[in-house]
Amino acid sequence: MVRHLAEVSKLVVKIGIVGGTGYTGVELIRLLLAHPEVEVAVVTSRGDAGVPVAEMFPNLRGFTDLCFSAPDVEALSKCDLVFFATPHGVALEMVPQLLAKGTRVVDLGADFRIRDAELWSRWYGLPHTAPEALAEAVYGLPEMNRTAIKSARLVANPGCYPTAVQLGFLPLLSKGLVDTQRLIADAKSGVSGAGRQGKVANLLCEVSESFKAYGASGHRHLPEIKQGLSLAAGAPVGLTFVPHLVPMIRGIEATLYAELKQDSDDLQALFESFYENEPFVDVMPFGSLPETRSVRGSNLCRISLHRQPESNVVIVLSVIDNLVKGAAGQAVQNMNIMLGLPETAGLNLIAALP
Ligand SMILES: NC(=O)C1=CN([C@@H]2O[C@H](COP(=O)(O)OP(=O)(O)OC[C@H]3O[C@@H](n4cnc5c(N)ncnc54)[C@H](OP(=O)(O)O)[C@@H]3O)[C@@H](O)[C@H]2O)C=CC1
Ligand SMILES: CC(=O)N[C@@H](CCC(=O)OP(=O)(O)O)C(=O)O
């Protein structure tokens, strides 16, 4: 028997997922099986075609009888919308073919996030072979780009660090309150951020009881974050971004620093009004300490502000679940906007605390 988590509406939207065996893929399946307006029709795997999805992922047992199938453009093009939960370069090849057949796409990878193809190639080490698709892609941070997402055929879902960092800095930059050349983002991620593929560096014995920075000389999310913040500021920004790996499974915490151009008492009011109508950004009381466990499994970004005595620096703390607001949840949010569905459909999730 297959349990149906939601009363599915009559006008069902058919969904495909390329890369269903990865962490963001299985998170997409979890969210979409509980979504009232969509049906997951195709989930791909190259190596596990024919295997029941619920056999691989124990949380899905009893909720779907789908089997993985090999990635095939013809089968995927029968879907109304396809998510790519694949490494860089995969969407690049398949997306132009799907767009030509009228299928809309949300790419969770980075192939269409950076407007400048040459800059993308430098950071990702591949030639950008889909310039036309890149030209029409819309960067899928709804809090910044909702109107453009509504009519997009191709949405580039932001990276996990870029989501946490941009949401924290956006109000300050869009109001021109801080020195745009001296922004600092000190971010930490759980290990699921590195994906499900077996790598020695991600083994329990390698990451537990330990804490380290990485990408300190330049991480590929740097150009993506700078692109978004520069748009918000109206001029190129200077940013120092250093990610860290922490021994937990899910979650990102970003501690952000910006120098105020002049003292301001109403930063809290600014953040509250900036995000007043945003269903997935929670501005906490001034001086709060947001925890990653408070957003674990939910699509929320929780933000708080701090000031220290005799300092012109504003400190912003921002937390998300890297697999939800940092990936699959934000992708479903974008899908809802693209399809004209309620933006929160399938995303009314409260974090699982312990
Ligand atoms: N993990 C995270 O927190 C976040 C990840 N992202 C991005 O989302 C994407 C997916 O990440 P994640 O789920 O962690 O990755 P995983 O490594 O966990 O999964 C990758 C998936 O892609 C499939 N795949 C790999 N190569 C190909 C190919 N050539 N053709 C078709 N399918 C392929 C694999 O399936 P199979 O081998 O079975 O075919 C697998 O299901 C990446 O671009 C990542 O950078 C974005 C935000 C956050
Ligand atoms: C902990 C960890 O390893 N995190 C990943 C970020 C995952 C992500 O969001 O990256 P994409 O831009 O590829 O989508 C990293 O630093 O490479």
TrEMBL record:
PROSITE patterns: ARGC. InterPro entries: AGPR, AGPR_AS, AGPR_dimerisation_dom, AGPR_type-1, NAD(P)-bd_dom_sf, Semialdehyde_DH_NAD-bd. The active site is at C160. Pfam families: Semialdhyde_dh, Semialdhyde_dhC_1. Catalyzes the NADPH-dependent reduction of N-acetyl-5-glutamyl phosphate to yield N-acetyl-L-glutamate 5-semialdehyde. Keywords: Amino-acid biosynthesis, Arginine biosynthesis, Cytoplasm, NADP, Oxidoreductase. It is found in: Cytoplasm. The gene is argC. This is N-acetyl-gamma-glutamyl-phosphate reductase.
